[in-house]
Amino acid sequence: MRARKVLVVEDSKVVHMMYDVMLQQMSVVHAVDGVEALEKLKSHKDVDVILLDISMPRMNGLELLSHLKSNPETVRIPVVIVTTHGKDDETRLGMNAGAAAYVTKPFRGEAILDIIDRLSPGEA
Amino acid sequence: MTTRATESEDRLRRAGVELSLITNLRSTIDQARALVEELEAKLASISEANNASSDVRLAELESRVADAESDRRLLSAQLIEFEQKTNRLLNLYVATYQLHASLEVSDVRDAIAEIATNLLGAEQFILLLRRGVGVACDVIIAEGLDEGWSQRLRHSYYPGGQAIIDECLADGVRRMGYRTAVIPLNFRGVCIGALVILKMVDHKPELGPDDRDLLDLLAAHAASALYAAQSHVPSSGELKIMDRYQSIAPKVHETKEAGR
Predict the structure, then answer these.
(1) Is the pTM of this model over 0.90?
(2) Complex ipTM, two decimals?
């Protein structure tokens, strides 16, 4: 069975490194904003889950989510919003725009792993 | 560089092994839960038979159910403890690595801010560097400040006046409340500034023991990381870590001598 592939869209180096360590048994693709994420998706069409920050330069998480959900090639990829804000407007907008789940920062590793397992069952 | 890269790879590998152990523990707990359910089902069917021979079997099964349940509880407790330990180590490893990953002052500043935001859950915080032996400080980072604090820190200058901050700057000892903290930045044994967490994100109830480790790490490493960065790029010397240290240190040493 192939390793699951996770696209991390996040502008914090600290958080990227957290994912690198936590998701070692998966294939992790990194992007620092929405624009780079769309570029990466062109060459990584087999992404299983997207972990998405909201506040980012150039193209923020909500804008990217809108692109993803309006594109037939990406509409089925589950998106998890990972945000420092709890149930605020941005998170609510994200969930209404089609995000599958949200996690608040600071997060614990098992919370992210549980959600990925739920959204993309496969080899851990 | 190669040695550092190899060490980093080793650490990453070790963290991976711990995460894989967590996965195995989870699987074992699931199996134990399934066994308990199976035995309970058998128990129920035997109870219905209600005869003398089934009483012995019933007692045996009850004992096995109790054992399995006890094992499951033990494993669950171990899993929680292991997950907490892994998370704590992960946070410390990532924070240490990022503080020293770059020799650009802006990168080190970003790393401090990102650690405060993403690992500690700070919503409002400031990083102060002392101007001299007093409590007056330059504000190096200010994040998410409300109107009151913006007024207090006009022109990126902290004049003193907040007792908890001033005390920390004076004695170099960490102050930590449920949702606020003042962490001294120590450089060569002298407090040259402080990271002040003014407000946590709403969904984080309080600063816990795991956060204490991270705060201590920042106290020990943030100032030296900033100093290393500004030493590497002289044009970024506006932080003047060594100047600040030299203006504060003699007074601190004098006080220590007098206290002996």
Answers:
(1) no
(2) 0.85
